[in-house]
Design brief:
Length: 263
């Protein structure tokens, strides 16, 4: 039997991690934690306000895909960010920051050596095999003053519960499945990475590059207009965009679905 999130244990983990923000709200079930935090944003909630649910009935991922979230089997959470006077063109980093923060937290608390597949999928990679997806991020700008970062991490899903064959979970990777510690770690790392972003600390970019296994890989990228770009990823630039060498030119990709070619 899976354990539900325990508020007292969560508060203890938050204190141990030195989290300075609001204590997350735990819901038994909801349609979407992103929708819930968007309502908090409209009501004037502070940055760092967070809702985590045991189950989402209408969870979603990037490009309106359904996000499967079995009860108590994962960390299904959303956090409010107030960008303040940060230029709008720098907001492109926010979903990447969410992915990097989740990667930081998974490595710290579970022992699983997760990596990032551009832009913000948390994956586990062995050799030249295709990445196994551990977590995803959905970033939604609500207005000029608020962004909701939704993070879904597969914690204790079994093989039969995985939504797709290329997914995985901390349990299947042999990692720790303490969700209270994982949640506290995500929040603390997110606050740290947002701080780097606000002062243009270049270590944010270098840390992302170090964690991103898409760099150096042969890929196929389905662009928003459904054109498929094939080539080798040579970098992630300072704006968080993918830089692809297609053999004839260097192409800057701002959005798209990436598939790693199997070597």
């Amino acid at each position: 039997m899976r354990l539900v999130l325990n508020l007292a244990a969560l508060e203890s983990s938050l204190a141990a991690a030195r989290w300075q923000g609001p204590v997350p709200t735990i819901l038994e079930t909801t349609e979407s934690t992103n929708n819930d935090v968007a309502r908090l944003a409209a009501a004037g909630a502070a940055e760092g306000s967070c809702i985590v649910a045991e189950h989402q009935s209408a969870g979603r991922g990037r490009q309106a895909r359904t996000w499967v979230s079995p009860p108590s089997a994962g960390l299904w959470m959303s956090v409010l960010v107030r960008p303040g006077d940060m230029p709008r063109d720098t907001w492109t980093w926010l979903p990447l920051i969410a992915g990097l923060s989740a990667c930081d937290a998974v490595r710290e608390t579970s022992g699983v050596q997760a990596s990032l597949k551009w832009p913000n999928d948390l994956v586990v990679v062995q050799g030249s095999q295709s990445p196994r997806k551990l977590a995803g991020v959905l970033s939604e700008a609500i207005d000029d003053h608020s962004v909701v970062l939704g993070i879904g991490i597969n914690v204790s899903l079994t093989k039969d519960e995985l939504p797709i064959p290329t997914a995985t979970s901390l349990l299947l990777e042999g990692g720790s499945v303490n969700r209270e510690e994982l949640l506290a770690s995500v929040l603390v790392h997110l606050a740290h990475r947002l701080g780097q972003w606000r002062v243009s600390d270049h270590s944010l970019v270098s840390d992302y590059r170090a964690a991103c296994v898409t760099i150096g890989r042969k890929v196929e990228v389905t662009l928003p207009d459904q054109v498929v770009l094939a080539g080798i990823v040579v970098d992630v630039d300072d704006q968080g965009h993918l830089v692809v060498d297609d053999g004839a030119d260097t192409v800057i990709v701002t959005a798209g679905d990436v598939i790693h070619a199997t070597i």
